[in-house]
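Collaboration report, partner site 2.

Our partner group contributed sequences for two proteins of shared interest, and the home lab folded both. The records are reproduced in the order in which they were received, starting with the first partner submission.
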Amino acid sequence: MAQPLTRSDIEAAIAKYGPVLQLHPEEQYLNCSVEWMLSHSTLIDSKDKTKNIVHPRGDQLPQAPKQGTRYYLQVEDSAKPGNFSTAKAYVNAFWQKGMTYTDLQFWFFSAYNGHGTARFASLVNGKIEHQADVNVAPLGEHWADWEYAAVRIDNASKEMIGVMLSEHGGNNFFDKTAVAKQFRMVNGTHPVVYSSLNGHANFPGVGPNFSQHHQVLGKPAGLDFNILNTTADGGLQLDCSVKYEVVAAEWLKGTPEANVIPAWVGYPYRWGPEGTTIHMKVKTLSDFIKAALGQPPDVFEVLVLDDPITLLAAELLHVFVKADINGASAPATQAPWTGHY
């Protein structure tokens, strides 16, 4: 059985296969470093406000075990745009005994996740009559965003055998054949990972990247809905083979090769506020949908579409509001960090 990677193996694999993160040219919410966000935050102790820390250092963050929702971060509005000059990929190298490969997870951090964009289409007898994209702010917004792209390395050959991309809490795996077909490569070995506009979900190429498809009725009339995860070339790029920090490689712990693990990795609370919510009524979202579709051409369409719009709006509120605008959970508490994809 192949031996686990050494620290030098990890560094060599990152140098050879580290992805290139491609941002959308219109991205407003750029990546930043953890340290930069903390310099624009206050650590809140909900049990003792006298112990709040303005602009905490990483080593001042509380560690596990977690005490409910006692601590969280209150972030200054000025931090929303991020600071790309400080951005880096945080590498969690995941391997456990018996595994023949190692996942190098490149975690990307943004101070803010932007609004959702939806594509609505009215259907008459199953065919699209009207279609439009609409900004559904504040739906989809929340503080702090952790996404990742993982490069899977074969422990024996030290070659890349797959890529895993995060997408709004989901995980999409591409084997070696799929990587060759779907990914653009920089210098032959560095996969380009496209970050979606505002939401930072990751994809292998450019396009609308529809998700959360919903259809309500269809005949004689109905509605079709998709969330847009638009990706494009032309924006800023983060070369993860150069701008990175290895923050975890558990099997090396206690050995001379162990990395220094930053204190923030063990912070188990939200990267952002607690207890915040978005309030929007079904009627408000219904009005969004109607405005997006424009004025239907006749009274018949107005009447037959009214009920489907209300039904769709009621269904979509749950899709958008489930994340509220609370801060994202700590990456080490998320399933992929421990290999549960």
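Second partner submission, folded after the first:
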Amino acid sequence: MTVAITVDDLATLAPNARSSYREAFSNAQPVLDLFEISASPLRLAHFMAQVLHESGGLAIQFENLNYSAARLPKVWPSRFQPTGPLNPNDYAHNPQKLANEVYGRRMGNTAPNDGFTYRGRGLLQLTGKDSYGEATRIVRGSFPDAPDFVQAPDEVISADWCVKVAAAEWQQKGCNAKADADSINLVTKAINGGLIGLAERKEWLRRTKAVWP
């Protein structure tokens, strides 16, 4: 028996959800079933906890790169003064310039504006041109009509594809098994690459477990 996610569940957890995300989750059950996320309350709770954290309670579609000059050295200390070479005043409150600096020339980003074009997007904040290409590959494994997310990156946040991208990424990274072990550390490392925001993720998990005990 699969575990259902309802409109009421979503309203409880994410009252400020974007309309596209609300629409996506209202039609998400077949996708969650396909990727076996709905196979247990524990899997669904862990999946939704990560999604809710990464998307700011389903209110964030794009990574917020509108940093102050004071904040930049704290986020990227190796890049910005006083320990790094760059003057933070040159990048403050300029998301495009900042994204191209911190994400350019890595993660498959090669063209001058790739860092900004392939900045964090969607329910699990897909980042970098390589990740958009990988998302295309794995989503097409289940949905052959999926768009090329490299060519159409904003489809990652669309009602039609946002849950499919997140669910496919979740499965690809082996997160169902990690959720079965109830290990938020392992799930977070798979999704984030580290343990950034772990305290907030734990709080989201506490809340999602209350919805799907």
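Feedback sent to the partner group on the second submission included the following. The chain is about 50% helix and 0% strand. Residues 90 and 103 are 16 Å apart (CA to CA).
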